[in-house]
Amino acid sequence: MRKRLLATVLCLTATATGCGATVESSPDATSPAVTLTNCGREVTYDKVPERVVTNDVGITELMFALDLEDRMAGFAMPDDKGDLRGVPWKDGYDKVTWLSKDQLTKENVLDARADLVLAGWNYGFREDSGFTPDALEELGIPSYVLTESCRNGRSKTARGIMPPLDALYTDLTNLGRLFGVEQRAATLIAGFRETIADVRAKAPAGADRPSVFLYDSGQDTPFTSGRYAAPEQIITEAGGVNVMHDVADSWTTVGWESVVRRDPDVIVICDYGDVSAEQKEQFLLSYAPLRGVSAVRHRRIISLDYADLVESPRNPSAIARLGAYLRGVPGDPR
């Protein structure tokens, strides 16, 4: 039921190809060079890419939402990211080659004869594997870094340079310019803004806003979202308050003691991986240090898919569904 709702909401909000929108003509591969600002620096692309390779589900669906699957040579992602058959861009998954069920490698990219790699830090790009934009540049292959994952300069690994939805809109706008589908990108963004504004208008205000903890994974220490990952604005626009808003990072690890101290009213589980959402919920409900936390005492726990919670065109529908849930949480439930 949840998958069918996802498809319905996205088709209503994203007036892209497949949902009844006007299709722009294909961009000309001989078009002049395009210069974009990516992660705070200007990057010039000499031509419109024709063999794009993407890493992970959210990044891949940015291309599909812009109806650019014909410009793709393949994608890499684990097969633990949910049922892909019910998404509005199912045709994209049917058309484009699934190169790897692991992270992208130089070998994947070279074998695919890629002329652009679209990935992000910790979404494919990693120094420890030697798969970085600089390494690809040495091979003559340009890259574009997912804005949610841009490093923010506070440390060698901290990520995030702008509010998460701004990151989504920035990437759609940039890709629209690069591929000559600016109107398609603008239409998507307008639809997303409309959906989110509607949720915001219904959201509780002030002290009635429930506090929310995003639980990704981990038992010894929880992996969660600071203020620069998508859950920050998904929670905020839905009518909640991210209890980890003060963490100046995107996806990161915190201590359980900080969760207990902040006493969230609601916990959102990120559903993916070998550990199911049901198993994660059972852990949270049975973990002794969380026994007094409001969300655990009242069993206010909701699951959203991984692709809902990373930067992706699914973010607006996730806001709508979380907003509906949070409106059912009593004010000042303690």
Question: What does this protein structure show overall?
Answer:
InterPro entries: ABC_Transporter_SBP, ABC_transptr_periplasmic_BD. Keywords: Signal. This is Iron transporter. It holds the Pfam family Peripla_BP_2. The chain is α/β, with parallel strands linked by helices and about 325 residues long. About 35% of the residues lie in helices and about 15% in strands. It is globular and about 60 Å long.
Q: Whole-Å distance between the termini?
A: 31 Å
CA radius of gyration is: 20 Å
How many DSSP E strands?
Answer: 14
Encode the helix/strand succession as letters.
HEEEHEHEHEEHEHHEEHEEHEHHEHH
What would the principal axes of the Cα set say about the shape?
Answer: globular
**CATH class identity of the largest domain:** Alpha Beta
CATH topology of the largest domain: Rossmann fold
- Give helix % range: 25-40%
User: What are the low-pLDDT stretches, counting only 5+ consecutive residues below 50?
Assistant: 1-23
Mean pLDDT: 89
CATH architecture of the largest domain: 3-Layer(aba) Sandwich
Count of runs of 4 or more consecutive helical residues = 13
Counting structural domains, the number is 2
What portion of the residues fall into strands of 2 or more residues? 15-25%
